[in-house]
Amino acid sequence: MKTWDVIVVGAGPGGSTTAARLAMAGCDVLLVDKERFPREKPCSDVYGRYGVDCYKEIGAYDEMVAKGFVFPDLALTSPDYTELRGPNLLSLTCPRRVGDNILKETAARKGATVLEQFWVNDLMMKRGQVSGVKGKFEGRFVEYPARIVIGADGSHSWVAKRLGLFADNYDEVFLAGRAYYANCDPPLRTMEVHYDPYFFPGFVCLSPHPGYGDVVNMGIGYQMTPYVQAKEDVEKLVERFVETSPYGEKMRKARRVSEWMGWRVPSAGQIGKTYAAGAMLIGDAGSFVDPFILEGVANSVRSGGYAVQTALEALEKGDFSEGFLAAYEERWKAKMKPRLDMLHQLSVVARNAEMLNATFQGLKSNPGALKKMFG
Ligand SMILES: Cc1cc2nc3c(=O)[nH]c(=O)nc-3n(C[C@H](O)[C@H](O)[C@H](O)COP(=O)(O)OP(=O)(O)OC[C@H]3O[C@@H](n4cnc5c(N)ncnc54)[C@H](O)[C@@H]3O)c2cc1C
Predict the structure, then answer these.
(1) Cα–Cα distance measured from residue 177 to residue 261, given in angstroms and rounded to the nearest whole number
(2) Is residue 83 part of a domain?
(3) For residue range 8-26, what is the model confidence (pLDDT) as tens digits?
(4) What residue's CA is closest to ligand 1, atom 26?
(5) What is the pTM of this model?
(6) End-to-end distance of the chain based on CA atoms, in angstroms?
(7) Are residues 245 and 187 part of one domain?
(8) Which domain holds residue 146?
(9) What is the whole-number distance in angstroms between the Cα of residue 173 and the centre of ligand 1?
(10) pLDDT digits (tens, 9 = 90+) for 85-138
(11) Does one domain contain both 186 and 140?
């Protein structure tokens, strides 16, 4: 049976961009996903700025902009309504059903073989090294060998579980959910994130979609530890935000036009080992989500970029050992860890309203720090 250079498990933004880049570099790459696309992914639909260079490199950005919305600015508030506002140049909102499909199609166009409704349920192993995937495809149990497997299979990652690298620390894992609403008044254009007193210690996120009947994606993020201890359910807290917060006012006459969908979000506060012999974990599978406002799309793409560099070197050298693939972790740590650490510190501050208020007030009077945050 054919041995692939790389099998990428999961065609979310991390997996599709990784497969596209590998194919562009001449690799024989297989991208598999258990869903049939286009598929839903609960999200506030923000494709953040750190992914943009990659979307441009693989030739997907123009289509994403055409189908999405480059919002002009971003507003963040703390529980005492201190507002931080900054311009946005590159990040965009696009329903994940649409944006992820563009990225998956791009991977196929660039030469990756894409198999949908391929459910990976185990890894092939040879002499202690990952040597492919096992799964169910077209009604049969199958085995597909590969030199390298990249786990991009999201926050419930089977690949991470099979490697013994799945982390689940309730202080660093969040519950997040979203629903779409019509008739926001006035129409929303700014991307908003509110650590509102009526939702604390979680946050509410409002994300605009002018190209889709002007629906607003209302999302929430709530750290698991207080969530499991909470006396009120999250839907009630959202209702209270809408009824009581000055930032909820524009949603008071809005009508919900979708179901609420929730999902597990593994933040980088719990990030651990992200590689093994023959395998690497990217995106949510490796807990790469920003712990402050739960931005994970761009981080899945960025971590995928470092996995691509490492995979190309490993294929050239013919070395897929754990020691060789450790270079992946060195790369992302050098480039991504300082920002992830800073956002983790902010997320710890965000567990205490007074501390978060003081931090926002400090940031507001510090243009340099603000520029770093939004720039
Ligand atoms: C409500 C909510 C709001 C959010 N808002 C934002 C936001 O606005 N901006 C942002 O940047 N991040 C946001 N996030 C986080 C963001 O959704 C994730 O960080 C991002 O989707 C990670 O991308 P990924 O490619 O790693 O994984 P995913 O996008 O989860 O993709 C994983 C893919 O793997 C497939 N898969 C899973 N298991 C298997 C298997 N066994 N076999 C084969 N395929 C499999 C899945 O079908 C899926 O397509 C939000 C999360 C939630 C829950």
Answers:
(1) 5
(2) no
(3) 999 999 999 999 999 999 9
(4) 283
(5) 0.97
(6) 49
(7) yes
(8) 4-69+91-168+267-349
(9) 14
(10) 999 989 999 999 999 999 999 999 999 999 999 999 999 999 999 999 999 999
(11) no
